Amino acid sequence: MFSDLLIERLLKATSVVVLTGAGISAESGVPIFRGETGLWKKFRPEELANIDAFLRNPSLVWEWYNYRKDLIREVNPNPGHVALVALENKYPDFLLVTQNVDNLHRVAGSRNIRELHGNIMRNRCVDCNRQIDQSELTVPTGSAVPRCECGGLVRPDVVWFGEALPNKEIQDAFTAARSCDVFLVVGTSAVVHPAAQLPLEAKEYGAYVLEINVEPTVISNYVNESIFGKAGTILPALVKRLGL
Ligand code: OAD
């Protein structure tokens, strides 16, 4: 399943970067965004995942995020998430960059993570920008929308359409992509930028780029190697092949 070249590069590597997308959590039961079963087929991003929609109808947006939070609370990391922890333990220089907001990499035990699109379990005030943990959320009686102690509306601390990515996270991700030996891109359709640029940048700077996805994507022709199958099967097999 794995090419000799990939295994050789991984055995020699000291620095590895992994970019994950919704596909890595699919086997845990978290719906992906695109495709026939994707969330964006059922819900409209323009009504739910942007600041104007939130300010227009905060309770609708909170209803959608509470639905997703409840769903995520019920699920567990799968063998794909766990295999990435084993890779992190092997490589002295390892960065996990994720577009996922579902917190499952942290629950699995990954440590060096950059969450490019935020974390659904975190919140922040629209007015004073204070970060507010889930346990601190207060919802005024008769409302579905949590409020900050300053009186401002509280929103999920995730990146919505039209918003900039957190600066440090994206800078760190590009710096690591440009200097790593091997770059794994797992379970992403690779259509949302700037995250989708990372594997291409890594390749341009000399990394060996492996894609793992259940189907070909827009970057399949550009990476060094694609393996088509489930992340929850392929990643544990890769870790085993490396003797971890
Ligand atoms: P997508 O839903 O666009 O893509 C998920 C990818 O996972 C697809 O390419 C699937 O083929 C693949 N996939 C599904 N199951 C898999 C499995 N078991 N193993 C491996 N691959 C599998 O999700 P993302 O690429 O993560 O942004 O989407 C990127 C961003 O678009 C999200 O972070 C979100 C969304 O709008 C924001 O909310 C800002």
Summarize the structure.
By secondary structure, the protein is an alpha/beta fold. It contains eleven helices and nine strands.
Explain what this protein looks like in three dimensions.
This protein has 244 residues and is of the alpha/beta class. 38% of the residues lie in helices and 19% in strands. The chain is built from 11 helices and 9 strands. It has helices at residues 4-12, 23-26, 39-42, 45-48, 51-56, 58-73, 79-90, 104-108, 167-179, 197-204, 231-241, and strands at residues 15-20, 93-98, 113-115, 118-125, 131-133, 154-158, 182-186, 208-213, 225-228. The strands form 2 sheets. Strands 3-2-1-7-8-9 form a 6-stranded parallel β-sheet, with helices on both faces. A 3-stranded antiparallel β-sheet has the order 5-4-6, with helices on one face. A hairpin with a 5-residue loop joins strand 4 and strand 5 (131-133). The structure holds 2'-O-acetyl adenosine-5-diphosphoribose (OAD). Residues 21-23, 26-27, 32-34, 38, 49, 99, 117, 159, 187-189, 192, 212-215, 217, 230-232 line the site of 2'-O-acetyl adenosine-5-diphosphoribose.
